[in-house]
Structure formats: structure tokens, C-alpha cells
Amino acid sequence: MLNYPATPSFNCQNTRFTLTPPPLSSAYTLHPSSFSVSSSSSHSSLTSQYQQNLPSVSVHKHTHFNISQRTKGLKVRCSQNDPLKVMISGAPASGKGTQCEMIVQKFGLVHISTGDLLRSEVAAGSEIGNQAKEYMNSGRLVPDEVVTAMVIGRLSREDAKEKGWLLDGFPRSFAQAQSLEKMKIRPDVFVALDVPDEILIDRCVGRRLDPETGKIYHIKNFPPETAEIKSRLITRPDDTEEKVKSRLQIYKQNVEAILSTYSDLLKKIDGNRSKDVIFGEICSLLLQVQKEKETRKSGNASKLDSQFNKSPSAKENWRGIPTNLNNIPHSREIREYFYDDVLQATQRAIKDGKTRVKVEINIPELNPETDVYRIGTLMELVRVLALSFADDGKRVKVCVQGSMGEGALAGMPLQLAGTRQILEYMDWGNDGAMGTFINIGAIGGKEVDEVDDIFILVAPQNAMGNCIIDDLRAMTDAAGSRPVILINPRLKDLPASSGIMQTMGREKRLEYAASFEMCYQFRLLYYSGTQYPIMGALRMAYPYRYELFKRVNESTGKEKYVILSTFPSRPTGDEVNDAFEGRTRDQAKKASGFWGFLNGILSA
Known about the structure:
The structure is a single chain. By secondary structure, this protein is of the alpha/beta class. 33% of the residues lie in helices and 20% in strands. The strands form five sheets. It has a nine-stranded mixed β-sheet. A five-stranded parallel β-sheet has the order 9-10-8-11-14, with helices on both faces. Strand 1 (9-12) and strand 2 form a beta hairpin. Helix 1 (96-107) crosses helix 10 and helix 12 (332-351) packs across helix 13 (375-391). The longest helix has 22 residues, at 241-262. It is elongated. It starts with 8 loop residues before the first strand and ends in a 23-residue tail after the last helix. Mean pLDDT is 75; it is low at 1-80, 303-319 and 589-604.
């Protein structure tokens, strides 16, 4: 059962908004009448008007509305008035048409192709269409100025201004590119599909057309479904090797002619891969471009955010470790503090090229050894990580181990029971991340797909008589250089079903488990064998040192955490005891007496 209600979200064009509820102690409520959606022919906007005594709102990327009691009558408006503008180029048979379809479906851009425009204008009998028809009927090429006029006219329509556009195969000449430049029509990115000539020639020469349906087949890569279809396939007149080579030469000349205009915006994409892998890279690129555009437009939102961060409840004002960690359930501020702390450390590690990392966090709600363990808190942490990487255009596979063992020994750790179902029914937002950029899977080599960019493994662990290491190793081998993140793994060897510790291959299993680098760790320190009171905490967030804190009761009845020491690597129990007793490291000796109870707390 998920412990926390799903977070409501709604969309304004391509920007997702999520309402994050305030802590339960807050007396504030949100009234449906406070929100309205308005639209016009040029843009859509979301206006939220808080009544006189209601809290104000701060806005930021992948917006969460954070509640703070400050100003009155604040109005927040969001409009997608600077949509994506994309040019795409590719040689014949490069797969450009397929990618255009996928881009339009994902981003909702207006697809503009000169071929379609010519046919449309001619059919409509427009002035430009009639001019183009005269050239086409006489077998002459339509002049640049006529084609450019058609394109500019199409770009000026309201749908292209509102939704953004995808300019397919245009401009094709330096003159066309310069005409667009003079009109200040410039894309955000110029995508060029790069495929070797021999592959393109093979694709073209092997193409076959079904004259009845218009469907395109390939004799090797996409053969017809039935012998009947195969018997009626024909080769298009321009799909001979000689003509294909000529068309490729013309394409290369056209591309070289316009590179000087768009060299600063050019992004080459390897087109000699599966269509899904190619689209994944293009999609990541366009999301990044979109994110950069939003950042440039976010001056007002940043100002609101900075005002919000002055609020007494903002977590930037928490110094060190949050207090009252033994109060269950944790407040939303405490949970979000740790979600953000984990997220930032993990992002830094992945950005630095780390590919095998782990997160260990044992606050009471995330410690399965306590009776207050909440699976919902773990799922929320996983969701925060997955959505963040998806925001950056990464395809994320969230993995939960399945049942292990056979027959009477089949089963899975109690901590993970029902986890996959919870993930599948969680609220992942309304912007289509789940199923597109985020997918749910199991642990194993067969779960690794070519399109996956990053893997988040939920609490992988050994069970009595069963070991997850082999499946885990198969998965990391298949993932190659792609990042794998373990969340609260428990990979120590456990006894076999006979109650005897497994020894075959144990050294290699432990060596593999240790190969994952810690990118975040947070542990509360108690007396040995107890869960109360909290004596201190140990924290590490990549790439910084381990920090040891001591919990101190203040005269006001409140508590705080005071940093005692830092360590370049994970401290031993003796080092923790020395720091609590105030001994320097050159005075260190085996712990004894009162603080000796802390020995071994870090070995779990």
C-alpha cells in the first residue's frame, strides 16, 4: 500500500505543473475556484489567483508549487510562447521521414515539408501554387524564391507560431538559407542524420513499393508479409544504384552549402542504428534545447523562487541534519530534504562519469529493520530520481527483483513484496513520462534494452538460500557503460536453505558487491541493539567527505546536530568512538567503556 497520496499534476503546453501539498500541520487549503485556464489563438496560459489570505506560490522548472505565507493576491501566469523550432536534414533513405513522424508525435510540432507544401498549394489553386505548377508542368525546377515564399507563408500561420515547427529538408541551398536569415527565421537546432553511403545505397536499392497500398518494403530489412504482396511489389524508377549515387551527391552539395549558416546549431546524429535508438538521442537533444530555452525565459520564476527561499520553512534554512528524525511519520519537509539530498549527490556522480553507484539511507522510514519502515517513502525517492533523469531526456529503467529460487524455495524478500505493483500504479505525472522515458522492469541481463540510458535498482538483496548477485552481474554486464544506481542494496551473503553459509564463489560475490561506489550515505547512530535515542548521524554526499554529527539537546528543549569530524573514506567504529570522545587520531585506541556500545554500528 502506498503511504502517501498521489501528487496531482496538470499541463500548460509542454510545461508540467505539480501541486505539492503542504505539511499536515498547515491550516491552508486550495480551492478549485482559485484556478482558471484561459486560452487564445496565439497561446494558452494558466492563471492562479490566490485569495486574500491564501498562501503564495513559487514557480520553477518542472514546476512544483511550494506553499509559503507571504504576499497577497499573487498571480502566476505560464505560457509556452517560445516553442521549439527544429530543422532536420537527411539523405535519401536516411530514415528522416520516420524520425519526423516520431518527433511530431512526441513534441506536437507542425511538420513542414516542401513537397507537401507544393502539392497543397497547387491543389488549392493559390497564386504561389499556380506559379509552381507552371514550372512543374514544364519540367523545370521551382525557383528558390517561390519555394521560400511558400515556406515563410506556412511558418507565419498561428499553429506554427503556437506549437513550434519542424522544417523537413529545407533549406536546401545557400540562397534559401539566407532568405530565411533575412526574415530572422532561425531554428533552435539543426539535426543532420548521418548514415554511410553504402548503407544508404543498400536501403534504396533494396526498397520495394506496393502499388496497391503505397506501403514501402525492403527485401532484407522489411520483407512483405505474404507471397501475394511480394508478387506485386515494384522497384521505383529512382531506386537504381546509379540514380541513388547521383541523389546522394546532390544532397551532400546542398548540405555543405548551408553548413556555414547553421554550423553553430548543427547536431549530427548517427542514423545507422534502430529507429528507437536514433529517436531516443534526438528526443534527449530536443528536451535539452527546450530546457535551455525555458531557463532563459525563467527570470520572473527565478525571482519568485528566491523570494520563496527566504521563507522560514525553506529547507535551505535548515543547518546540517534535520531534527526530530525519530518522530514518525516523517514530515513532508524532512522526506523532501532527503530526496533532494540524494538526488543532488547522484546527479553529481553520474555527471562525473560514474557508472556503478549506490545509495544507502536508513532514516527510520527507510530502514527495513524498524517497525516504522514505509515502502511508500522508498517509492517516492525512486520516483524523484527517475523523473529527474527523465527530465534530462534519459530513458530510465526502474528495476525490482522478481521471485528467486524454485519450487518450495521460491520467494522474494518481504521488504520488496508488492513493490512492482506499487510502482506501476503510482502517479508519474500527466506528461507521458511513464512508458516513454520511464519503464518498469526486473533485475537481469534480459531486462536491458538498447534504448535504456540509465537503470535504477530498488533495494536489490540476497535472501535466505538465494543470491541476487548473478542476476545483478548479468544486468551490469549487459548495461556496459550505462549507469546503474542501487537504492538501499543489501548484498551481503546469507546462509543457504540448510542454514550453512555459502562458501563457493563467496569472495568474488563480495568483491562484485563492493565494486559499486557510494554516492550517498546517511545513517543514524544509536547505542548498539537499540533504536532510541539517536546519538548522532553519519552523512556522505558525492564527491564530498564523510561527515560525523553528534545530536545535542539544547536548553530550550530543542535539538541540533553538531559536526564532530570529517573522513576521506567511511570511518570505522573505532574512529567514530574516538570522535565522540574527543580523541585525536594519533591518540586513537580501542574503544571501551560508555561509547564502546557504538562499536560495530557501521558494519551492517
